[in-house]
Amino acid sequence: MDVVISILSLLGFIALTASTGLFVAIEFALTGLERSTIENDVQRRDDHRAKAVQRDFQNLSFVLSGAQLGITLTTLATGFLAEPILAKFFTPLLSLLGVPSEATTPIALVVALLVATMLSMVFGELVPKNVAITNPLATARTVVTPVHAFNSVFRGFIHLLNKAANFTVRRLGIEPADELASARSAQELTALVRNSAESGDLDENTALVLDRSLKFGETTAGELMTPRSTVDALSAEDTVQDLISMAIETGHSRFPVIRGDLDDTIGVVTYKDAFLVPEDQRHSTIMADLARPVPLVPESLDGDAVLDEVRRAGSQVILVADEYGGTAGLITIEDCVEEILGEVYDEHDDAEAERDFQRFGANWQVAGLVRLDELAEKVGYIGPDGPYETLGGLVMATLGRIPRLGDELVLPESDNPMLAEFESGYRGRWMAKVTLMEERRVESVILSPISEEEAATMLEAVEPTKGAQR
C-alpha cells in the first residue's frame, strides 16, 4: 500500500509541476506577443485556439492574475506533497551512509525540500519560460485552453485579487491596463532595427534605410536644405535661353527665380518649362513670366512636415526661411530622398566629384557642408557643440577667421566626454587640412588621424603664433 501511495504521490508531483509550467508558459507567452501577430494568426487559421489567445490577450490583467494564483497554488501543493514522499527515499540512503538515526529524518526533509524546489524551478518555471520566450504564439496556443478552464473555475476569487491589486496601483497614481501597449516609439523601433541588424536578421543596407527613415522625423528643414550660398538661381529678367544654358552648365533641373537675391524670390522654374516655349520666342520670354509660386517654411520645421510640403509643391521645391525672415536655402525632393537612402546620382551628376565622403587609407576627404552628425556617423569624429552645424563651420570657428587654402588645424574634442563611448572607428585626435575653398566657404577638407602627442605638438606650435598676432 505504501508503494502505491508513493507512486501516486510522485505522479501527483509531476502533474503539479507540469501545471506550474502551464501558468508560467501562458504568462511569458502572452507578454511576449504583439497584437498584430495575434490578429494575423486569427485571420490565417480562424480556429478556436487563435480566438482564445486573442481573447486572453485582450483581458491580460485577469489572465496574468489567474496565472499568478495558479503558480502559487501548484507550487505550494508541490512542496506539501513532494517533501515527505522524497524524504522517504532519502532516509534509507542516509542510514546506509552512516548518518545517526535521530538526524536522518530532518536531513532527509531538508534534502527533499531542496530537490523538490530544484525540480519545480527547472521543469515548472525555467523550461516553460524559455520555451514561451522562444516561441510565444505556439506556446500560447498550446496552453490557453487548460489555463482558461482554471481561470473559469476561480473567476470570482481572481477578480477579487485583481480588484485589490488595481486599487493599490491606482493609489500609486497609475492606471492599470488590461492589454499590453502594442505601439512603439521611434526610439524603440530604432533599437529593434539595430538589434535585428546585429543578430543578422536584417542585412546592413536594409537596417540603414530603416534607421534613417525612423530618424527622418527628427531632422529639421535647416538640416535638410541646400544652403543659399550654393543655390544656383535665375534672375527675373533672364530668358528661357538662359534657363537652358544654366541647366546644361549645372546639371540641375529646378531653379529659383529672384529679384536681386534669394530673399526676394518670386517663384521657381524647371528646365521642362523651356520646352513649352516656341524656339523663336526663347530669347524674349523672361523667367518672371514662367515662375510658379514656391512655398516657404521655417528652418525649425520637422522632416515629416517638410516632406509633405515638398510633395505638395508643384515643382517639388520649397524655400527655407531663417528666424530673421530671410531665405536660408532650399529643399528639393532629392534632398529628402538622400536623407533616407544616402547619395542618389542621376546621369547628369558626377558621382565621384559630388561624393561627400571619400576615403583613402586612414584619411578622409570630406565636403565642407557635411553636417557634424553625419561626420560622427561616417568617420567617428564627434565635435563640440557650438554656433555651427557643418564641418566648414567648425573649421572656421576653430581658426577664428575665414579659412585659407592649405590651413591645418587640430579639431577640438567633444565637450561631452560621455559621447566618447559612442564613437566608431578611430578614437584619437583628428587633423583637418583645407584643400578647397569656394570664395569664403570651405568646400573640401582632408581629415587625418593623429596621436595625442602629435596633436599636442601642433597645438603648442599654434599658441605662440596667436600670441604674436595679439
From TrEMBL:
Subcellular location: Cell membrane
CDD domains per UniProt: CBS_pair_CorC_HlyC_assoc
SMART domains to which the protein is assigned, alphabetical: CorC_HlyC
Transmembrane segments: 6-30, 60-87, 107-127
GO annotations of cellular component type: plasma membrane
UniProt domain CNNM transmembrane: residue ranges: 2-206
Membrane topology: Multi-pass membrane protein
GO molecular function: flavin adenine dinucleotide binding
Domain CBS per the UniProt entry, residue ranges: 225-285, 290-347
Keyword list, A-Z: CBS domain, Cell membrane, Membrane, Repeat, Transmembrane, Transmembrane helix
Primary location class: membrane
InterPro entries the UniProt entry points to: CBS_dom, CBS_dom_sf, CNNM, FAD-bd_PCMH-like_sf, FAD-bd_PCMH_sub2, Ion_transp-like_CBS, Transptr-assoc_dom, UPF0053_domain
Family statement drawn from the similarity comment of this UniProt entry: Belongs to the UPF0053 family.
Protein name: Magnesium and cobalt efflux protein CorC
Organism the protein comes from: Corynebacterium gerontici
